[in-house]
Specification:
This protein is of the alpha+beta class. 29% of the residues lie in helices and 23% in strands. Strands 3-2-1-16-15-14 form a six-stranded antiparallel sheet, sandwiched between helices. Strands 4-7 form a two-stranded antiparallel sheet. Strands 5-6 form a two-stranded antiparallel ribbon.
């Protein structure tokens, strides 16, 4: 459909962390066929793009100094200069735009997100990074299969911390996470702040038929305040009802909450003339009573768009529709 290089999708139970489905597909350029050759969801830590804005808004909301509809940001024409670099929104505007914090998230404004984080953390970027650490984003999940890549979040004490690192980190760059790590974080928001370990193995039966049961494991009882969790749940639902993921979920029989992500990759390829993208959508459903969380990541889509809302979100919709059709509890609760 998108003729991408590769992609992955994972479905997890919100309350338990049990992985109910996972797929990793790579295209064979010689034949055009897809195959499963690498567990990208677990093994590949990459720049996440705008899905990390959930953490940026969590960090800002934990300051408890603003309301989503009261805080207004002038995003100008969609371009904002930080030293010798420019933060750009996905679209430029003919007239200067002003967005509330809620609209910044729903429209996935890079400029608005940067200005939000600058307001609270520009003078103390280390505090912002410590917030990310406190959310559990800096640690491996410790899954029971080999190959989990370590997440990477720069610190102001690192040699590769630059004057623009805070601004680029908060809207999706200069950090690295696996799709599963991003999913676990979103799952925690769906789970009212409780971060649970993804479970691939439910039980092991030995030759004597003795069973070893792998129970749900709580990594953190609460990644942030309940007040912040409630506001983030509002924001994620708003992305689907009013924002960048509105179109793919139109007419759905159940509510979805989530966030689109689009990250530029391979900046230097072909002299910088050809930019490739990694598109994603992370979220959960039903939004008002979360039972499943899911992430879809599509790397270098070549057809039918490259934004998370036009590539990854429709795949999420197909998966969630299938799960909704098969799980009777979703239709009776």
């Amino acid at each position: 459909l998108n003729k991408a290089d590769y992609g992955c999708a994972v479905v997890m139970e919100v309350a338990t962390g049990k992985i109910r489905a996972i797929a990793n597909l790579l295209i064979d350029t010689a034949t055009g066929d897809f195959m499963e050759a690498r567990n990208y969801a677990v093994a590949d830590a990459e720049e996440p793009g705008s899905t990390i804005k959930l953490a940026s808004f969590m960090a800002a909301l934990e300051k408890k100094q603003f309301e989503l509809d009261d805080e207004i940001f002038d995003v100008g024409h969609g371009v904002y200069k930080v030293y010798d670099r420019r933060v750009r929104d996905s679209h430029t505007y003919n007239k200067r735009k002003k967005f509330s914090a809620r609209e910044v998230f729903e429209k996935s404004s890079n400029v608005g997100t940067v200005k939000l984080i600058e307001k609270f953390y520009k003078d103390n970027p280390g505090e912002y990074i410590e917030r990310l650490y406190s959310f559990g984003l800096h640690d491996k999940l410790g899954v029971d299969i080999i190959g989990e890549a370590a997440p990477k979040i720069k610190s102001p004490s690192d040699e590769d911390w630059y004057g623009t690192t805070l601004q680029w980190t908060c809207h999706g760059y200069e950090t690295q996470f696996t799709p599963l790590q991003i999913l676990a974080y979103y799952n925690a928001v769906a789970n009212n702040g409780k971060l649970v370990k993804p479970i691939f193995i439910e039980k092991v039966v030995d030759e004597n038929k003795k069973e070893t049961i792998f129970e749900p494991h709580i990594i953190k009882n609460s990644i942030c305040s309940q007040e912040t969790v409630g506001k983030l749940q509002e924001l994620l639902a708003g992305v689907v009802s009013n924002g960048t993921a509105k179109r793919p979920f139109r007419g759905s029989l159940y509510k979805v909450a989530g966030k689109t992500g689009t990250a530029k990759i391979n900046y230097a390829k072909n002299g910088g003339n050809k930019v490739e993208y990694r598109s994603s959508f992370a979220g959960y459903f039903p939004a008002d009573n979360p039972r499943y969380s899911c992430i879809v990541v599509v790397t270098n889509p070549r057809e039918n768009g490259f934004y998370g809302g036009s590539t990854a979100a429709p795949v999420f919709r197909k998966i969630s529709d299938r799960v909704y059709a098969l799980d009777k509890k979703l239709r009776t609760e």
